[in-house]
Amino acid sequence: MTLTSGLGGQLSIDLGALARNWRALDKVSAGALTAAVVKADAYGTGIEMSSKALHAAGARFFFVATPDEGMTVRAALPDAHIFILGGLYPGAANLYIRQNLMPVIGSMAMLEEWLGKCIERNEAYPSAFHFDTGINRLGFRLNEAALVRERIERLGYAPQMVMSHLACADQPSHEKNRTQLALFGSVMAQFPGIPASLANSAALMTGRDYHFQMVRPGIALYGGRAVAGRKNPMGTVVTLHVPILQVTEGRTGESVGYGATYTLNRNSKLAIIAHGYADGFFRSLSGTNQRPGGKVYIRGKLCPVVGRISMDISVIDVTELGSDLPMPGEGAEVFGPHVSVDDQADAAGTIGYEMLTSLKGRYNRNYVGDGRLPE
Ligand SMILES: *Cc1c(COP(=O)(O)O)cnc(C)c1O
Protein backbone atom coordinates (compact mmCIF):
# COMPACT_ATOMS: atom_id res chain seq x y z
CA MET A 1 0.00 0.00 0.00
CA THR A 2 1.19 3.49 -0.86
CA LEU A 3 0.66 6.17 1.74
CA THR A 4 -0.15 9.69 0.58
CA SER A 5 0.15 13.00 2.36
CA GLY A 6 -1.85 14.92 -0.22
CA LEU A 7 1.16 17.17 -0.77
CA GLY A 8 2.06 15.90 -4.25
CA GLY A 9 0.68 16.78 -7.64
CA GLN A 10 -3.08 17.20 -7.90
CA LEU A 11 -4.77 15.49 -10.81
CA SER A 12 -8.30 16.74 -11.07
CA ILE A 13 -10.83 14.85 -13.20
CA ASP A 14 -13.97 16.81 -14.04
CA LEU A 15 -16.67 14.14 -14.29
CA GLY A 16 -19.25 16.79 -15.17
CA ALA A 17 -17.17 17.77 -18.21
CA LEU A 18 -16.77 14.09 -19.10
CA ALA A 19 -20.54 13.65 -19.00
CA ARG A 20 -21.10 16.82 -21.05
CA ASN A 21 -18.60 15.60 -23.64
CA TRP A 22 -20.44 12.27 -23.92
CA ARG A 23 -23.78 14.06 -24.31
CA ALA A 24 -22.33 16.39 -26.95
CA LEU A 25 -21.00 13.46 -28.98
CA ASP A 26 -24.28 11.61 -28.51
CA LYS A 27 -26.02 14.61 -30.12
CA VAL A 28 -23.60 14.66 -33.04
CA SER A 29 -24.23 10.97 -33.65
CA ALA A 30 -28.01 11.17 -33.16
CA GLY A 31 -29.56 8.08 -34.68
CA ALA A 32 -26.64 5.85 -33.68
CA LEU A 33 -25.91 4.47 -30.23
CA THR A 34 -23.03 6.26 -28.55
CA ALA A 35 -20.74 3.89 -26.66
CA ALA A 36 -17.82 4.91 -24.44
CA VAL A 37 -14.28 3.57 -24.79
CA VAL A 38 -12.81 3.27 -21.29
CA LYS A 39 -9.69 1.18 -21.97
CA ALA A 40 -6.35 1.97 -20.33
CA ASP A 41 -7.94 3.12 -17.08
CA ALA A 42 -10.32 5.33 -19.06
CA TYR A 43 -7.38 7.08 -20.75
CA GLY A 44 -5.76 7.64 -17.38
CA THR A 45 -8.81 9.20 -15.73
CA GLY A 46 -9.80 6.17 -13.62
CA ILE A 47 -11.91 3.43 -15.16
CA GLU A 48 -14.38 2.99 -12.29
CA MET A 49 -15.22 6.62 -11.63
CA SER A 50 -15.28 7.57 -15.32
CA SER A 51 -17.39 4.56 -16.34
CA LYS A 52 -19.92 5.36 -13.63
CA ALA A 53 -20.09 9.01 -14.67
CA LEU A 54 -20.54 8.03 -18.33
CA HIS A 55 -23.27 5.59 -17.33
CA ALA A 56 -25.02 8.31 -15.34
CA ALA A 57 -24.81 10.53 -18.42
CA GLY A 58 -26.57 7.83 -20.44
CA ALA A 59 -23.90 5.50 -21.84
CA ARG A 60 -24.82 1.80 -21.80
CA PHE A 61 -22.19 0.31 -24.14
CA PHE A 62 -18.57 0.21 -23.03
CA PHE A 63 -15.41 -0.87 -24.83
CA VAL A 64 -12.30 -1.97 -22.96
CA ALA A 65 -9.11 -3.62 -24.22
CA THR A 66 -8.63 -6.48 -21.77
CA PRO A 67 -10.69 -8.96 -19.74
CA ASP A 68 -9.36 -7.42 -16.51
CA GLU A 69 -10.67 -4.01 -17.55
CA GLY A 70 -13.95 -5.70 -18.47
CA MET A 71 -14.24 -7.20 -15.00
CA THR A 72 -13.60 -3.80 -13.43
CA VAL A 73 -16.37 -2.17 -15.46
CA ARG A 74 -18.68 -5.10 -14.75
CA ALA A 75 -18.15 -4.71 -10.99
CA ALA A 76 -18.94 -0.99 -11.24
CA LEU A 77 -21.86 -1.30 -13.67
CA PRO A 78 -23.90 -4.51 -13.39
CA ASP A 79 -26.17 -3.62 -16.34
CA ALA A 80 -23.57 -2.32 -18.84
CA HIS A 81 -22.92 -3.99 -22.20
CA ILE A 82 -19.17 -4.55 -22.29
CA PHE A 83 -17.07 -5.39 -25.35
CA ILE A 84 -13.47 -6.59 -25.06
CA LEU A 85 -11.52 -5.10 -27.98
CA GLY A 86 -8.61 -7.50 -27.52
CA GLY A 87 -11.02 -10.28 -28.41
CA LEU A 88 -11.35 -13.68 -26.79
CA TYR A 89 -8.19 -14.42 -24.84
CA PRO A 90 -7.35 -18.12 -25.27
CA GLY A 91 -8.99 -20.22 -22.58
CA ALA A 92 -11.03 -17.29 -21.24
CA ALA A 93 -14.50 -18.15 -22.62
CA ASN A 94 -15.84 -19.30 -19.25
CA LEU A 95 -14.71 -16.09 -17.60
CA TYR A 96 -16.33 -13.94 -20.31
CA ILE A 97 -19.59 -15.84 -19.95
CA ARG A 98 -19.55 -15.66 -16.16
CA GLN A 99 -18.87 -11.93 -16.26
CA ASN A 100 -21.19 -11.29 -19.20
CA LEU A 101 -18.38 -9.79 -21.32
CA MET A 102 -18.58 -9.78 -25.12
CA PRO A 103 -15.42 -10.61 -27.06
CA VAL A 104 -14.71 -8.64 -30.22
CA ILE A 105 -13.86 -11.71 -32.27
CA GLY A 106 -11.28 -11.20 -35.00
CA SER A 107 -9.84 -14.59 -35.95
CA MET A 108 -11.06 -18.05 -36.89
CA ALA A 109 -9.35 -19.41 -33.77
CA MET A 110 -11.30 -17.02 -31.52
CA LEU A 111 -14.50 -17.75 -33.41
CA GLU A 112 -14.11 -21.53 -33.09
CA GLU A 113 -13.38 -21.28 -29.37
CA TRP A 114 -16.44 -19.07 -28.78
CA LEU A 115 -18.78 -21.15 -30.94
CA GLY A 116 -17.46 -24.31 -29.29
CA LYS A 117 -18.50 -22.91 -25.93
CA CYS A 118 -21.91 -21.88 -27.31
CA ILE A 119 -22.47 -25.43 -28.63
CA GLU A 120 -21.26 -27.02 -25.39
CA ARG A 121 -23.68 -24.93 -23.34
CA ASN A 122 -26.36 -24.75 -26.00
CA GLU A 123 -26.59 -20.98 -25.78
CA ALA A 124 -25.78 -18.21 -28.27
CA TYR A 125 -23.51 -16.02 -26.15
CA PRO A 126 -23.20 -12.53 -27.61
CA SER A 127 -20.08 -11.23 -29.35
CA ALA A 128 -18.99 -8.71 -31.98
CA PHE A 129 -17.05 -9.54 -35.15
CA HIS A 130 -14.15 -7.30 -36.13
CA PHE A 131 -13.03 -7.14 -39.76
CA ASP A 132 -9.74 -5.57 -40.75
CA THR A 133 -10.38 -3.13 -43.60
CA GLY A 134 -6.85 -1.81 -43.94
CA ILE A 135 -5.11 -1.10 -40.63
CA ASN A 136 -3.56 -4.59 -40.49
CA ARG A 137 -4.00 -5.14 -36.80
CA LEU A 138 -6.70 -7.20 -35.11
CA GLY A 139 -9.60 -8.55 -37.08
CA PHE A 140 -10.70 -11.11 -39.64
CA ARG A 141 -9.18 -10.54 -43.06
CA LEU A 142 -11.72 -9.46 -45.66
CA ASN A 143 -11.46 -12.71 -47.58
CA GLU A 144 -12.60 -14.58 -44.46
CA ALA A 145 -16.01 -12.88 -44.41
CA ALA A 146 -17.75 -15.50 -46.52
CA LEU A 147 -16.24 -18.32 -44.48
CA VAL A 148 -17.31 -16.67 -41.21
CA ARG A 149 -20.81 -16.18 -42.52
CA GLU A 150 -21.13 -19.79 -43.67
CA ARG A 151 -19.84 -21.02 -40.32
CA ILE A 152 -22.40 -19.09 -38.26
CA GLU A 153 -25.28 -19.61 -40.67
CA ARG A 154 -25.00 -23.35 -40.26
CA LEU A 155 -25.28 -22.93 -36.48
CA GLY A 156 -27.92 -20.21 -36.56
CA TYR A 157 -25.57 -17.90 -34.61
CA ALA A 158 -25.51 -14.12 -35.17
CA PRO A 159 -23.11 -11.56 -33.64
CA GLN A 160 -24.47 -8.43 -31.92
CA MET A 161 -22.41 -6.27 -34.22
CA VAL A 162 -19.85 -6.18 -37.02
CA MET A 163 -17.14 -3.57 -36.70
CA SER A 164 -13.92 -2.23 -38.17
CA HIS A 165 -11.42 0.49 -37.28
CA LEU A 166 -9.97 3.33 -39.37
CA ALA A 167 -6.25 3.92 -39.75
CA CYS A 168 -6.37 7.64 -40.63
CA ALA A 169 -9.58 8.98 -39.08
CA ASP A 170 -7.67 11.89 -37.49
CA GLN A 171 -7.02 13.16 -41.04
CA PRO A 172 -10.56 13.42 -42.46
CA SER A 173 -9.41 14.09 -46.03
CA HIS A 174 -7.07 11.08 -46.15
CA GLU A 175 -8.19 8.86 -49.01
CA LYS A 176 -7.76 5.74 -46.89
CA ASN A 177 -10.93 6.69 -44.99
CA ARG A 178 -13.08 6.37 -48.10
CA THR A 179 -11.34 3.12 -49.07
CA GLN A 180 -11.96 1.58 -45.66
CA LEU A 181 -15.56 2.85 -45.65
CA ALA A 182 -16.20 1.11 -48.98
CA LEU A 183 -14.57 -2.12 -47.83
CA PHE A 184 -16.62 -2.01 -44.63
CA GLY A 185 -19.72 -1.73 -46.81
CA SER A 186 -18.75 -5.00 -48.49
CA VAL A 187 -18.40 -6.65 -45.06
CA MET A 188 -21.80 -5.34 -43.94
CA ALA A 189 -23.38 -6.75 -47.08
CA GLN A 190 -22.31 -10.22 -45.93
CA PHE A 191 -24.10 -9.71 -42.60
CA PRO A 192 -27.45 -8.14 -43.47
CA GLY A 193 -29.46 -6.87 -40.52
CA ILE A 194 -26.53 -6.98 -38.10
CA PRO A 195 -25.73 -3.58 -36.51
CA ALA A 196 -22.44 -2.05 -37.65
CA SER A 197 -19.82 0.15 -35.99
CA LEU A 198 -16.83 1.92 -37.54
CA ALA A 199 -16.27 5.30 -35.91
CA ASN A 200 -13.80 6.29 -33.20
CA SER A 201 -13.91 9.92 -31.94
CA ALA A 202 -12.42 11.39 -35.09
CA ALA A 203 -14.69 9.49 -37.49
CA LEU A 204 -17.70 10.39 -35.34
CA MET A 205 -16.75 14.06 -35.72
CA THR A 206 -16.05 13.69 -39.46
CA GLY A 207 -19.53 12.83 -40.65
CA ARG A 208 -22.65 10.73 -40.61
CA ASP A 209 -21.32 8.36 -43.30
CA TYR A 210 -19.19 6.81 -40.60
CA HIS A 211 -21.78 6.48 -37.82
CA PHE A 212 -23.81 3.36 -38.73
CA GLN A 213 -25.57 1.90 -35.67
CA MET A 214 -22.93 2.53 -33.00
CA VAL A 215 -20.05 4.97 -32.53
CA ARG A 216 -17.09 4.30 -30.23
CA PRO A 217 -15.51 7.54 -29.00
CA GLY A 218 -12.59 7.48 -26.59
CA ILE A 219 -10.18 10.43 -26.65
CA ALA A 220 -12.81 13.11 -27.29
CA LEU A 221 -14.71 12.09 -24.15
CA TYR A 222 -11.62 12.93 -22.12
CA GLY A 223 -11.21 16.32 -23.77
CA GLY A 224 -8.46 15.28 -26.16
CA ARG A 225 -8.11 16.45 -29.75
CA ALA A 226 -9.46 13.80 -32.12
CA VAL A 227 -9.12 15.52 -35.48
CA ALA A 228 -5.75 16.98 -36.46
CA GLY A 229 -5.45 20.64 -37.38
CA ARG A 230 -8.88 21.64 -36.19
CA LYS A 231 -10.06 23.55 -33.14
CA ASN A 232 -10.91 21.05 -30.42
CA PRO A 233 -14.55 21.55 -29.38
CA MET A 234 -14.45 19.26 -26.33
CA GLY A 235 -14.46 20.43 -22.70
CA THR A 236 -11.38 20.01 -20.51
CA VAL A 237 -11.65 16.95 -18.27
CA VAL A 238 -8.13 16.51 -16.90
CA THR A 239 -6.17 19.18 -15.03
CA LEU A 240 -2.80 18.53 -13.41
CA HIS A 241 -1.18 20.89 -10.93
CA VAL A 242 2.22 20.07 -9.48
CA PRO A 243 3.94 21.84 -6.58
CA ILE A 244 6.79 24.28 -6.99
CA LEU A 245 9.53 23.24 -4.55
CA GLN A 246 11.96 26.12 -4.84
CA VAL A 247 12.48 29.34 -6.75
CA THR A 248 16.10 30.13 -7.42
CA GLU A 249 18.41 32.20 -9.61
CA GLY A 250 20.81 31.28 -12.39
CA ARG A 251 23.38 33.55 -13.97
CA THR A 252 24.18 34.21 -17.62
CA GLY A 253 26.40 31.47 -19.03
CA GLU A 254 25.46 28.84 -16.44
CA SER A 255 23.91 25.57 -17.53
CA VAL A 256 20.77 23.87 -16.23
CA GLY A 257 20.26 20.18 -15.52
CA TYR A 258 21.88 16.88 -16.49
CA GLY A 259 24.10 16.97 -19.53
CA ALA A 260 24.28 20.80 -19.37
CA THR A 261 22.04 20.94 -22.46
CA TYR A 262 20.68 24.43 -21.75
CA THR A 263 22.79 27.51 -21.15
CA LEU A 264 21.18 30.59 -19.63
CA ASN A 265 21.56 33.59 -21.91
CA ARG A 266 20.46 36.03 -19.22
CA ASN A 267 20.30 36.19 -15.46
CA SER A 268 17.24 34.08 -14.79
CA LYS A 269 14.69 33.12 -12.19
CA LEU A 270 14.10 29.37 -12.09
CA ALA A 271 11.23 27.46 -10.51
CA ILE A 272 11.91 23.82 -9.64
CA ILE A 273 8.74 21.73 -9.93
CA ALA A 274 8.11 18.31 -8.34
CA HIS A 275 7.33 16.66 -11.65
CA GLY A 276 9.60 14.49 -13.76
CA TYR A 277 9.63 11.68 -16.25
CA ALA A 278 8.65 9.18 -13.53
CA ASP A 279 5.38 11.12 -13.29
CA GLY A 280 4.70 11.01 -17.03
CA PHE A 281 6.42 14.32 -17.85
CA PHE A 282 8.26 12.93 -20.84
CA ARG A 283 11.98 13.55 -21.17
CA SER A 284 11.24 14.68 -24.71
CA LEU A 285 9.71 17.83 -23.13
CA SER A 286 13.23 18.92 -22.11
CA GLY A 287 14.26 22.33 -23.45
CA THR A 288 17.64 22.97 -25.07
CA ASN A 289 18.92 26.21 -26.57
CA GLN A 290 18.27 24.75 -30.03
CA ARG A 291 14.89 23.20 -29.40
CA PRO A 292 12.19 24.50 -27.04
CA GLY A 293 10.46 21.91 -24.84
CA GLY A 294 7.25 21.85 -22.85
CA LYS A 295 5.63 24.76 -21.06
CA VAL A 296 3.73 24.97 -17.79
CA TYR A 297 1.34 27.66 -16.61
CA ILE A 298 2.40 29.68 -13.57
CA ARG A 299 0.84 32.93 -12.31
CA GLY A 300 -0.98 33.64 -15.56
CA LYS A 301 1.87 32.92 -17.97
CA LEU A 302 3.18 29.96 -19.95
CA CYS A 303 6.74 29.37 -18.79
CA PRO A 304 9.22 27.09 -20.58
CA VAL A 305 11.00 23.98 -19.36
CA VAL A 306 14.75 24.59 -19.46
CA GLY A 307 17.30 21.81 -19.49
CA ARG A 308 16.64 18.12 -19.17
CA ILE A 309 13.65 16.76 -17.35
CA SER A 310 14.86 14.58 -14.47
CA MET A 311 13.14 11.64 -12.83
CA ASP A 312 11.44 13.66 -10.09
CA ILE A 313 11.92 17.31 -10.97
CA SER A 314 12.00 19.77 -13.84
CA VAL A 315 13.25 23.32 -14.10
CA ILE A 316 11.01 26.11 -15.38
CA ASP A 317 12.25 29.53 -16.47
CA VAL A 318 10.01 32.06 -14.72
CA THR A 319 12.07 35.16 -15.50
CA GLU A 320 9.23 36.57 -17.62
CA LEU A 321 7.05 36.79 -14.50
CA GLY A 322 9.23 39.72 -13.37
CA SER A 323 8.70 40.42 -9.71
CA ASP A 324 5.46 38.38 -9.57
CA LEU A 325 7.32 35.19 -8.68
CA PRO A 326 5.61 32.07 -7.36
CA MET A 327 6.07 30.87 -3.80
CA PRO A 328 7.23 27.38 -2.86
CA GLY A 329 4.19 25.14 -2.48
CA GLU A 330 2.30 26.99 -5.17
CA GLY A 331 1.01 24.92 -8.08
CA ALA A 332 2.12 24.91 -11.70
CA GLU A 333 -0.45 23.74 -14.27
CA VAL A 334 1.06 21.00 -16.44
CA PHE A 335 -2.16 20.66 -18.32
CA GLY A 336 -5.70 21.85 -17.95
CA PRO A 337 -7.60 24.92 -19.10
CA HIS A 338 -4.44 26.90 -19.98
CA VAL A 339 -2.20 24.20 -21.42
CA SER A 340 -4.04 21.53 -23.35
CA VAL A 341 -2.93 17.92 -23.16
CA ASP A 342 -2.44 18.14 -26.92
CA ASP A 343 -0.22 21.23 -26.78
CA GLN A 344 1.94 19.45 -24.25
CA ALA A 345 1.89 16.29 -26.38
CA ASP A 346 2.86 18.26 -29.52
CA ALA A 347 5.87 19.68 -27.67
CA ALA A 348 6.84 16.15 -26.61
CA GLY A 349 6.52 14.79 -30.15
CA THR A 350 3.68 12.50 -29.18
CA ILE A 351 -0.12 12.49 -28.95
CA GLY A 352 -2.56 13.39 -26.18
CA TYR A 353 -3.47 9.71 -25.85
CA GLU A 354 0.06 8.86 -24.70
CA MET A 355 0.26 11.86 -22.36
CA LEU A 356 -2.99 10.89 -20.63
CA THR A 357 -2.32 7.18 -20.38
CA SER A 358 1.17 7.87 -18.98
CA LEU A 359 -0.23 9.65 -15.93
CA LYS A 360 0.79 6.96 -13.51
CA GLY A 361 2.85 9.31 -11.42
CA ARG A 362 2.85 10.45 -7.84
CA TYR A 363 -0.21 12.62 -7.73
CA ASN A 364 -3.48 12.70 -5.84
CA ARG A 365 -6.47 12.08 -8.04
CA ASN A 366 -9.48 14.26 -7.24
CA TYR A 367 -12.86 13.93 -8.86
CA VAL A 368 -15.07 16.92 -9.45
CA GLY A 369 -18.81 16.47 -10.00
CA ASP A 370 -20.44 13.37 -11.44
CA GLY A 371 -22.23 12.24 -14.59
CA ARG A 372 -25.65 13.43 -13.52
CA LEU A 373 -26.57 16.42 -15.61
CA PRO A 374 -29.59 18.62 -15.79
CA GLU A 375 -31.58 17.56 -18.83
C1 LIG B 1 -9.27 2.89 -28.87
C2 LIG B 1 -10.29 2.52 -29.87
C3 LIG B 1 -11.37 3.38 -30.13
C4 LIG B 1 -11.46 4.79 -29.56
O1 LIG B 1 -10.59 5.60 -30.30
P1 LIG B 1 -10.45 7.18 -30.03
O2 LIG B 1 -9.55 7.62 -31.12
O3 LIG B 1 -9.82 7.30 -28.69
O4 LIG B 1 -11.79 7.77 -30.09
C5 LIG B 1 -12.36 2.94 -30.99
N1 LIG B 1 -12.28 1.72 -31.58
C6 LIG B 1 -11.24 0.88 -31.37
C7 LIG B 1 -11.19 -0.43 -32.07
C8 LIG B 1 -10.21 1.26 -30.52
O5 LIG B 1 -9.16 0.44 -30.33
TrEMBL record:
Keyword annotations of the record: Isomerase, Pyridoxal phosphate
Q: Which residues form the Alanine racemase C-terminal domain?
A: 237-368
The protein's required cofactors: pyridoxal 5'-phosphate
- Which residues are recorded as modified (N6-(pyridoxal phosphate)lysine)? K39
What is the top EC class of this enzyme, as a single word?
A: isomerase
Q: Which GO terms describe its molecular function?
A: alanine racemase activity; pyridoxal phosphate binding
Known pathway: Amino-acid biosynthesis; D-alanine biosynthesis; D-alanine from L-alanine: step 1/1
Q: Any idea of its EC number?
A: 5.1.1.1
Tell me one GO biological process term. D-alanine biosynthetic process
Q: Which reaction does it catalyse?
A: L-alanine = D-alanine
Question: Which SMART domains does the annotation name?
Answer: Ala_racemase_C
InterPro entries tied to this protein: Ala_racemase, Ala_racemase/Decarboxylase_C, Ala_racemase_C, Ala_racemase_N, PLP-binding_barrel
Gene3D superfamilies from the entry? Alanine racemase, Lyase, Ornithine Decarboxylase, Chain A, domain 1
Q: Where does substrate bind?
A: R137, M311
The catalytic residues are K39 (proton acceptor), Y258 (proton acceptor)
The highest taxon in the source lineage is Bacteria
Taken from the UniProt entry, a GO cellular component term is: cytosol
Name the residues that span the membrane: none
Pfam families recorded: Ala_racemase_C, Ala_racemase_N
Q: Quote the HAMAP family the UniProt record gives.
A: Ala_racemase (MF_01201)
Q: What function does this protein fulfil? A: Catalyzes the interconversion of L-alanine and D-alanine. May also act on other amino acids.
Family label: Belongs to the alanine racemase family.
This chain's protein is named Alanine racemase
Source species? Devosia equisanguinis
